[in-house]
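Annex B. Sample input.
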Amino acid sequence: MRYKVSGNEVMPDAEIMQSTAAKFGYPDTLIAETPSWLVLLRPQQVTLGAVVLLCREPVEAFGAVSAGALAGLNPLIGHLEKVLSDFTGYEKINYLMLMMVDPAVHFHVVPRYEASRTHGGLTFTDAGWPGPPALDRAVKLDDETRQALTRELRERWDACVKSPSLSGT
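Annex B, continued. Sample output.
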């Protein structure tokens, strides 16, 4: 995996970003990517459609993310919210930037809803509703379910993003 740092200089992604991506199942959980960000299915589904939005830059503080990567968040989040809204019918969406265990800059994106959702024969309950997400009460997906959910969200993403609007992010 490589990314453009500035001008024509190309450097490998930082080891810390790679280890964080691997922890969240990359490349198997990849839903979408831009030059600056990865959208990964969260293997432990706090709620149906929970994802990780991971910065590809070698930074450990949000303030250190480049202006270009930050500018790329706007269209990326717009597409992500459209895909997740259509998929889960969420009532709220939470972006958690905890970075205590995995220091690479990343958000846990958690669709929130009062009533349970069912998908692939599993029931997903927002155990923390209406308070903070209950991160310790996630549904751990088996390999087959994880692959199917990743594939479905990737297909929904591809259908949503028909234009090159994310090409520079």
